[in-house]
Amino acid sequence: xxxxxxxxxxxxxxxxxxxxxxxxxxxxxxxxxxxxxxxxxxxxxxxxxxxxxxxxxxxxxxxxxxxxxxxxxxxxxxxxxxxxxxxxxxxxxxxxxxxxxxxxxxxxxxxxxxxxx
Length: 117
What we know:
mainly alpha
């Protein structure tokens, strides 16, 4: 004989907030255990990095509110909002722009010294 299972709460529809898993009790009864919704890690704010950010806990917003700051962020520049690869790219780009400015300044100085001669 198959055991007839009923929900333990009032909501009797299989909605997103009413998901359950089956569990066997020590008294050998099969009952519904209510599961929590799964959280998702935040996406990168740069918009170009695919997927989710690593190092940030994937939890629901209410749980995220209770987490400590160290579990919500990463200890680097833009940690918790932009991916590591994109931060690296930005630093490299800024360095190259500064280097280009210096090269332009040196070339201008050389051209001026050539004119003076």
